[in-house]
Amino acid sequence: MPAIDRRLETAIALATEAGAMAMRLRPAPGSAQAKLKGAQDWVTEADGAVERFLSDRLLAAFPDDGFQGEEEGIGRTGMLRWIVDPIDGTSNYARGGSRFCVSLGLMEDRIPLAGIIVAPALGETFAARQGKGATLNGTRIHAAGTTALPRATVEIGWSTRRTDSEFLALCSRVRGAGAALRMGGSGALGLADVAAGRQDAYAELHINLWDVAAALAILAEAGASVSDFTAGHGCTKGNPILACAPGIAEAMTALF
To answer: Which long-range contacts (CB under 8 A, 24 or more apart) does 182-186 make?
Structure first.
């Protein structure tokens, strides 16, 4: 089995197991059961436990691969490296919500090679491998064929790295163009929904590599239009991201 295919198969199995761990640790609905790392930046017991599990298991399976997690940073270096967000959508997860996921991306330098996003409470697994297409629960997915913003649904993520006025101005421009707005609390799942054609765009003025690494591969293989996230210091300090149906890419880029 080619090396990347073997890694993808292993990563799907590990992400599924990690998702089951997250479900066991998920707080009951109610007030957030988590700590704050910063303004609206939550971390739970599961974030650390899931990241350690994935780091250990990937090291055992692929000892030459690098590893970078949201919580612990760059733990290992290698020509190929795994970029992991153990719980994306922690603000939802911390309140017993269902819209969260385990996200694993495999990259070579700045090139996304594979991506896996497992949303255990939703029963969904997104996966992609460079040149082999993207799937949701084993079925091929494609970005939507939408061609006009008044017919589009756009999710806009919010980041403390940009001002409220910048965020609200973007929302106003998109809404002024006629699109419906959405905010789901998980950047990885918002991007995956664009890949699956379930919404037409996802935009965020600042997002980190671990939030998007898996989704970049999935979006590319689903035929979505995606901004160059890895440009400049994107892989180390984050960047804006815009992912959308190809038919509205020009219009969304003008607004973004």
So the answer is: 182/153, 182/154, 182/155, 182/156, 183/155, 183/156, 183/157, 183/158, 184/89, 184/99, 184/155, 185/89, 185/91, 185/92, 185/97, 185/99, 186/88, 186/89, 186/92, 186/99, 186/100, 186/101
